[in-house]
Amino acid sequence: MSIRELVILGTASAVPTRHRNQNGYLLRWDGEGLLFDPGEGTQRQMARAGLSAHDVTFLCVTHFHGDHCLGVPGVVQRIARDGVRHEVRAVFPAAGEEYWRRLRHASAFKDTGVITEWPLSGEEATVPAGELTLTARPLSHPVPSYGYRLAEPDSRRMIPAELERLGVRGPEIARLQREGSVRAGGRTVTLAEVSAPRPGQKAAFIMDTRLCDNVFALAEGADLLIIESTFLTPEAALAEDYGHLTAAQAGRVAAEAGARTLVLTHFSERYGDEDEPRFLAEAAAAFQGEIVFARDLLRVPVPKRRP
């Protein structure tokens, strides 16, 4: 069965709390499982969420601050220990490759050969993901950091009433989809006459960054936007100094980019669950769509396709 959902494994920023594990997000997209920014404790959070190493096909690190990568050794060793046979693509900033090597081989264990490395550099990088496209762009943070965008190709949806009106039925429908045109009712029927564009679904994952052009480029038209909101507006100057966003800025990004569902996460330890209404209110001042205040082990479905 096709599953498209975000499983949130951790929502804390630099310091975990009693109720928040450090970062960790598994985006399940049909047969792919993209594990973003596994922080400390991710392996245990995966077990609590009913996930296994076999669910992971991509291991994506935005940058090498500890709350975004200290779970890498456990995840890698679990992939080896559990005998995962499929390829797992490890994607990370090339500028932090030294840190990747340390994490990848942090302790003695029986290694695995299924992990392939995809270091990122430049203004835009793409990683093959089957029929999907995983794009990365650099962000504005004190250390090299990349955000990610997952997109499926655009396609077309058939319009049953038009197929019937023009007499295209049965196997001819599949042929029309393959070849772009068929003969029916004494004339040539083209695909454009009996179908409409269907935009591919998109998800964006944006962690530690100030506002910059690439934040908006990654978020453009996202059905699901997972974005850091480390601080509230009273700490906006602190956010700018440390290279982070506020909830209000996250809401602005979602609104200007035309996102559909906004997931706020990566909260400073200074805030508790009682501050949830403040985060939601700040984001909602700019963004009128669905807003999710992330909690550990919450599952967020990718919104259904646009009509």
UniProtKB/TrEMBL annotation:
Arranged from A to Z, the UniProt key words for this protein are: Endonuclease, Hydrolase, Metal-binding, Nuclease, tRNA processing, Zinc
What does the Swiss-Prot or TrEMBL cofactor note state? Answer: Binds 2 Zn(2+) ions.
Q: Domain Metallo-beta-lactamase: where?
A: 21-198
Give the catalytic activity. Endonucleolytic cleavage of RNA, removing extra 3' nucleotides from tRNA precursor, generating 3' termini of tRNAs. A 3'-hydroxy group is left at the tRNA terminus and a 5'-phosphoryl group is left at the trailer molecule
Keyword Oxidoreductase present in the record's keywords: the answer is no
- Per its Swiss-Prot or TrEMBL entry, what cofactor is needed? Zn(2+)
Active-site positions, per UniProt?
67 (proton acceptor)
Q: Where does Zn(2+) 2 bind?
A: 67-68, 208, 266
- Entry EC number(s): 3.1.26.11
In terms of domain of life, where is this protein from? Bacteria
| Assembly notes | Homodimer.
Q: Which HAMAP family match?
A: RNase_Z_BN
Q: What does this protein do?
A: Zinc phosphodiesterase, which displays some tRNA 3'-processing endonuclease activity. Probably involved in tRNA maturation, by removing a 3'-trailer from precursor tRNA.
Q: Which family does it belong to?
A: Belongs to the RNase Z family.
The name this protein carries in UniProt is: Ribonuclease Z
Native organism: Bailinhaonella thermotolerans
Q: Which gene encodes it?
A: rnz
